[in-house]
Amino acid sequence: MMCLRAKVLFLVTIPWASFASAAQTPTNVFASGNEHYRSGRFAEAIADYESLLKQGYASAPLHFNLGNAYYRTGDLARAILAYERAQRLEPGDPDISFNLRLANLRIVDRIDAVPELFLVRWFRSLAEAIPVSATVWILLSAWVLLFVVLSLPNILDRFPFERPARILALAAIIVVIVSAGLLGLQVYEASSRTDAIILDAVVTAKASPDDQSVDTFVIHGGLKVDLGDSVGEWVRITLADGKVGWIRSSSCERI
What pLDDT does 115 receive? Predict the structure, then answer.
């Protein structure tokens, strides 16, 4: 995929220059958005990119460029939302990860996540960094390798590499187990994601879905939260540190 990316340590603000689409009109709109961006007309670029999303078109480059445009206008919350969506489509992409980290450094809230065991945290990070397609490819390759290694002694009359074959088979078994667990976690995470980004500048969470209930905590735009039950116009959110409260559903948008 052809793209333009900065290689120095500042925000990668040059839009990706490709967009997979069979129709000519979406391609023209995307190109128009890129041209607006390069000319510093960020509001017009946002309008073009958002129009494509409303038509049902979505790709990592589209969300990435939209995030860059929002970032340049100072709308960190929507920039983070766009970067998060781009990362869902292209996990492990260095430009997306860098811009997302940079944008998160500028938000108000600093919330420490509930501690996890190192192995759990490492496994979860690995699942987020590797695309599902790559995990499937690794799993299938390890299965094929294991099958071949175990079959060779039965096919050949004389097999002089018994010890190396055992080591290779053991390695293949380990890869199969790890990649299968990784794939299971990726599928589960993809099917049960309830993350959202706070879009309002300041949001006061309540103890219950009622304006008259007790205030529990105050959060700010750009923060990632986990969505829970909803009651009317209210939704229950959970912060990374485990705090729970109710906010207006219009104050956030699901990733």
Answer: 77
Residue 192: CB atoms within 10 Å: 7
pLDDT digits (tens, 9 = 90+) for 116-144: 778 888 888 888 888 888 999 999 999 99
Report which secondary-structure segment, H or E, holds 86.
helix 76-89
The reply to whether 141 and 201 lie within a common domain is no
Query: For residue 233, what are the CA distances in angstroms to 113, 181, 248?
Result: 27, 38, 6
Give the CATH number, domain containing residue 216.
Answer: 2.30.30.40
Domain boundary among 162, 191, 220: 191
Q: Are 51 and 43 in contact (CB under 8 A)?
A: no
Annotate 20-71 with three-state secondary structure: CCCCHHHHHHHHHHHHHHHCCCHHHHHHHHHHHHHCCCCCHHHHHHHHHHHH
State which residues form the domain around 181: 118-191
pTM (predicted TM-score) = 0.74
> End of a domain among 104, 138, 156?
104
Strand order in the sheet with 244-248: 215-220, 202-206, 244-248, 234-238, 224-231, 195-198, 252-254
Domain count, the chain: 3
Identify how many contiguous H helices and E strands the chain contains and give both numbers: 8, 7
